[in-house]
Automatic annotation (TrEMBL):
PROSITE patterns: SLH, SUBTILASE, SUBTILASE_HIS, SUBTILASE_SER. One of its GO terms (molecular function) is serine-type endopeptidase activity. This is Serine protease. InterPro entries: Peptidase_S8/S53_dom (IPR000209), Peptidase_S8/S53_dom_sf (IPR036852), Peptidase_S8/S53_subtilisin (IPR051048), Peptidase_S8_His-AS (IPR022398), Peptidase_S8_Ser-AS (IPR023828), Peptidase_S8_subtilisin-rel (IPR015500), SLH_dom (IPR001119). The active site is at residues 68, 101, 254. Gene3D superfamilies: 2.60.120.380, Peptidase S8/S53 domain. Residues 1-27 form the signal peptide. Residues 677-740, 743-806, 807-858 form the SLH domain. The keyword Repeat does not apply. Pfam families: Peptidase_S8, SLH. Keywords: Hydrolase, Protease, Serine protease, Signal. It comes from Brevibacillus fortis. It comes from the Bacteria. GO terms for biological process: proteolysis.
Length: 858
């Protein structure tokens, strides 16, 4: 990534701080100072700064360095607490803030308190040394940051505050941090706002890593977490100083860290002889526990409690009780712990979460002069326990498996006195299973069209090589992504020159960002051997893994080619599938088929590889100059599941041309053609039980089909449709029937513009059709089988009477339509379904045709 260090301010959140549902609300306590905006500074109540101020509120005996973008020297709430600063961005110039971030951070730390204006810092009065390491745009380098720490130490700083972060480990920065520890300076840093692992410098064991919480003590989602996290402090809408003498809020771990720095300075005001380790331990032991009991990776040891920190005595073993395995305390993999062992407390237990297979080293500082004062037994998951012995300055390394490792520390039997120990842990991931693959010669071959590989950078300078053989032209999709943002990936892809050992490389792929660190490459490839090289941008060893995904898609073979003219058209038969590719925008695919009898031909597209611009045209060999039918919306119709085109075709030879405005060659289109032979102009009655009656009545124009060459024999018939068919049947057999309705009765749902107005009216006037209450005709309501029987009986003047018996179990003699149903059944014009008639069932178009055919002998 291009930017190595950024200020760790999170995206500003402008949501009002409103807490409900029994959540803790931190309201400002009665003012301990008279600052005008103190009531806006809810964070001070949350960390109990008001209570602490009654004990200690300032520290003017030490220098507190703030490594940031400088400070606003003209701000009335800062100027009295600022020392002349240092500008490492533009040496020789002042440390005046030109970004605003440093002014915000400094105000949280040490805005002048109890001065009747503005806000109050955690410290009322202080000697703050601004060291400008951030440029106007908020960026810097790890080299400048390391120089900032050394500059602060050279100026005698005892507290060094850094609300900035980098995901990259740096030896230079690590050396500066170690010098600070030796020099007796307390380092505090924001954990960062990448929603990932704790960033540097906060991640170094001797730096207090500070995350951010809201007013209800829930962790802000951007706040980095992990084994290096030590404390949390408020980081949501923290009210502070702004450039130009103004005031306002800002959010993120940048706002949280200076609160801890202020607390560290107050501790040193009370106990000036404490070491940096002592200050850290006192802050940890007095934190208000949040989340899981004890230390956890989301909130560390808990919420900063300034009041308790300045009132409490330092404990050299605050993790007690932990003398039993069930009371083991957390020992994060990249941190420090301190404890005591003595005659009455001979054992301490710890537990360590191991993220990957690897090894953990422990460096000990032991106050006992005995060379092996302490025995440590390690219980790695699924491994035999290991016992090692510690003396002062010893470092031991233990192989570990991913999971939980228990640790038992025991005072050696030959030691009589009590002693204090400090252990610093460091985790190193094991080499991945692809090692050794650091060179072209040791590149691991990848086989297959879809491959996933997991790797890591276990050692400084490690890089992973892979090879992939491409046998034919195609497309390569390569992505490599880390499991945490400390891994800054660099991807290289190259092709070996034919007959040589040299590789021609693409420019390095380094397009990942802080928010999306995955590198992605899509490229055309030709036959030959390719190399893929994955490395870490800073060549660091990193405790993390990456996943490399490779997908290869060969160019799709188009077996119909060459078919780019109608003379070369590929043959099609009914029901077959057209498939192929359009590798260039000028390519066309032609197909031909023959229609032997009048048919309805339907074209569908089960799959089109592009979203738009796919074109279809149909030609007859009788005239190739003009298309019979065409559309440019094949893809859109395909996506909706619609037919592309459907039409009647006469016998003859036809051609289809396909082309696309967007070329594609890795996927094939699929189009189908279906021919349905027409019977009386219909494509859906060829095997229907009422076929002959439909054909016969259609030829006499008593019934008609639809424009898409269907009759829809099983579709329900409406009252308007049945009235029309019935009147046509009457006229076909010589019955004189009026063509226009002349009656006076009107129906509100049968306007004159209705297509069947006259037929409905005539049927009503003849007494064949009845209306409904409220002057309704319901012309579009499906007609029931019972209504069909009654209307035919009325039209044919059939004598109706009540029968003593019934032919159908579902039509009792009391049924209103029983006389008509029985009369038509006795004449064999109508039939049921065995012993049932289903009088309320909808009459279908096929049933109506058959009944009319029989009733009128058509």
């Amino acid at each position: 990534m291009k930017k190595l260090v950024n200020m760790s301010v999170a995206t500003a959140l402008s949501v009002a701080l409103v807490m409900a549902n029994n959540q803790t609300i931190y309201a400002a306590a009665p003012p301990a100072s008279n600052d005008y905006y103190l009531s806006n500074q809810l964070h001070l109540s949350q960390i109990r700064a008001h209570q602490a101020w009654s004990v200690v509120n300032s520290n003017e005996q030490i220098i507190i360095a703030v490594l940031d973008s400088g400070a606003d020297y003209k701000h009335p709430d800062l100027k009295d607490n600022l020392l002349p600063g240092v500008n490492l961005v533009n040496p020789g110039r002042s440390a005046q803030d030109d970004n605003g971030h440093g002014t915000e951070v400094t105000g949280v730390l040490a805005a002048s308190g109890n001065n009747s204006i503005g806000v109050s810092g955690v410290l009322w009065n202080a000697k703050v040394l601004p060291i400008k390491v951030l440029a106007k745009n908020g960026d810097t380098t790890v080299q400048t940051l390391a120089k900032g720490i050394n500059t602060a130490l050279d100026r005698g700083a005892k507290v060094i505050m850094m609300s900035l972060s980098s995901m990259a480990y740096s030896k230079e920065l690590a050396n500066a941090v170690q010098r600070a520890e030796r020099s007796g300076a307390v380092l505090i840093a924001a954990s960062g706002n990448e929603s990932s692992r704790v960033a540097y410098p906060a991640a170094y064991p001797t730096v207090i890593a500070v995350g951010a919480v809201r007013g209800n003590n829930e962790v802000i989602y951007q706040s980095n977490t992990g084994p290096e996290l030590n404390l949390v402090a408020p980081g949501f809408n923290v009210y502070t100083t702004k450039l130009g003498g103004k005031y306002g809020s800002f959010s993120g771990t940048s706002a949280a860290a200076p609160q801890v720095a202020g607390a560290a300075a107050l501790i040193l005001a009370r106990y000036p002889k404490l070491s940096p380790l002592d200050v850290r331990q006192l802050l940890y032991q007095t934190a208000t526990d949040l989340g899981e009991k004890g230390w956890d990776r989301k909130t560390g040891y808990g919420l900063l409690n300034v009041d308790k920190a300045v009132r409490s005595a330092l404990s050299y073993d605050f993790l007690e009780p932990n003398n039993q395995s069930y009371s083991a305390k957390a020992f994060p993999i990249e941190s420090q712990i301190r404890g005591n062992l003595g005659p009455k407390d001979t054992i301490d237990w710890f537990k360590m979460d191991i993220p990957y297979d690897g090894k953990v080293s422990f460096t000990a500082s032991v106050t006992s002069g005995i060379s092996s004062a302490m025995a440590a037994t390690f219980y790695p998951e699924n491994r035999t326990p290991i016992t090692q012995y510690f003396g002062n300055g010893d470092t031991i390394t233990v192989p570990v498996k991913a999971g939980t490792m228990s640790i038992r520390l025991m005072r050696n039997g030959g030691v009589n006195n009590a002693f204090t120990y400090v252990l610093t842990s460091k985790f190193t991931i094991n080499p991945d299973r692809n090692e050794p693959n650091d060179t072209q010669e040791t590149a691991r071959p990848l086989v297959g069209n879809q491959i996933s590989v997991t790797g890591n950078f276990h050692d400084e300078g490690d890089q992973d090589w892979f090879s992939y053989y491409v046998r034919e032209y195609g497309h390569l999709d390569v992505s490599v992504g880390p499991d945490n943002k400390r891994v800054d990936l660099l991807l290289g892809i190259g092709k070996q020159e034919p007959g040589k050992n040299t590789v021609v490389w693409d420019p390095n792929y380094d397009n990942g960002t802080k928010d999306n660190p995955t590198e992605r490459v899509k490229k055309e490839v030709s036959p030959g051997k390719y190399y893929i090289r994955v490395s870490e941008y800073n060549r660091n060893a990193v405790n993390g893994e990456y996943q490399l995904d490779l997908g290869y898609t060969p160019v799709k073979k188009d077996f119909n080619e060459p078919n780019d003219t109608y003379q070369k058209a590929s043959p099609l038969s009914g029901g077959s599938v057209m498939s192929g590719t359009i590798p260039t925008a000028t390519d066309s695919d032609w197909f031909q088929f023959t229609v032997n009898s009048e048919s309805y031909v339907t074209f569908r597209a089960p799959y089109i590889p592009v979203d738009s611009g796919f074109r279809f045209a149909l030609y007859s060999d009788r005239n190739m100059n003009y298309a019979i039918a065409s559309t440019n919306e094949v893809a859109e119709l395909s996506n909706r599941g619609n037919d592309i085109i459907g039409l009647r075709l006469q016998p003859g030879k036809y051609y289809v041309r396909l082309n696309s405005g967007t070329a594609f060659k890795y996927e094939s289109y699929r189009l189908t053609v279906t021919q349905q032979k027409l019977i009386a102009g219909y494509r859906d009655i060829s095997d229907h039980w009422a076929r002959s009656e439909i054909v016969r009545l259609n030829s006499r124009d008593i019934v008609n089909g639809f424009n898409d060459a269907t009759f829809k024999p099983n579709q329900a018939v409406t009252r308007a449709e049945f009235s029309t068919m019935l009147l046509k049947s009457m006229r076909a057999t010589g019955t004189k029937v009026a063509t226009a309705y002349t009656g006076k009765t009107t129906f509100r749902d049968m306007p004159k513009r209705h297509w069947a107005y006259n037929n409905l009216g005539v049927a009503y006037q003849l007494g064949i059709l009845k209306g409904y209450p409220k002057n309704e005709m319901k012309p579009d309501q499906p007609i029931s089988r019972a209504e069909m029987a009654v209307m035919i009986a009325r039209a044919r003047n059939v004598l109706l009477y009540n029968h003593g018996t019934t032919n159908y179990q579902d039509v009792p003699t009391s049924h209103w339509a029983s006389p008509a149903i029985e009369a038509l059944t006795s004449r064999n014009w109508l039939s049921g379904y065995g012993s049932s008639f289903k009088p309320n069932g909808r009459a279908t178009r096929a049933e109506v045709v058959v009944v009319l055919s029989k009733a009128y002998q058509l």
